[in-house]
Design brief:
Elements: H1 6-15, H2 20-29, E1 34-36, H3 37-43, H4 49-61, E2 65-70, E3 76-81, H5 83-102, E4 103-105, E5 111-113
Antiparallel strand pairs: 1-3, 2-3, 4-5
C-alpha cells in the first residue's frame, strides 16, 4: 500500500478550495504582489464580495497574504502576498506551464486535455 504524502495532501487542502489558487496567482501578477479589494473583485467578476472577503480571510489564516489598512476616511484596504504566499505562487508556475502545454481552453470556457 502506498501512503499519500501528508504535505501534498495538506497543500491540496489549501489549493483545492475554490478561488484560493487563482487569488494567489492574481496577487503574484500585481505590482509588489499587492492589490486592493476592489481590483481583485473587478477581475474575479463571478465571485461575490462576501465570498471574496471570506477567501481573503482564509488565505490570511494560512499566512499566505497580509491585509494592509491605510487611512481613516476613506480607508484603503490592500492585500499582499507574504513570503510564504510568494513561494507558493512560484510553485504554481510549473503547473501553469503544464496546463498551457496540455489543456485547451474552449471559447465556451470549457477545458479539454490536448
Amino acid at each position: 500500500m502506498i501512503n499519500i504524502c501528508p504535505y501534498i495532501e495538506a497543500s491540496f487542502q489549501i489549493l483545492g478550495r475554490k478561488w484560493n489558487g487563482q487569488i494567489i496567482h492574481f496577487l503574484s501578477l500585481c505590482k509588489d504582489n499587492t492589490s486592493h479589494f476592489s481590483e481583485i473583485k473587478r477581475d474575479f467578476s463571478s465571485i461575490t464580495s462576501r465570498a471574496l472577503s471570506l477567501k481573503l480571510s482564509e488565505l490570511m489564516e494560512y499566512g499566505l497574504i497580509d491585509k494592509m489598512v491605510v487611512g481613516v476616511s476613506p480607508v484603503v484596504i490592500s492585500y499582499k502576498l507574504t513570503e510564504k504566499g510568494q513561494e507558493l505562487a512560484n510553485a504554481l508556475q510549473p503547473i501553469q506551464e503544464w496546463a498551457q502545454h496540455y489543456i485547451t481552453i474552449e471559447n465556451t470556457g470549457e477545458e479539454k486535455l490536448k
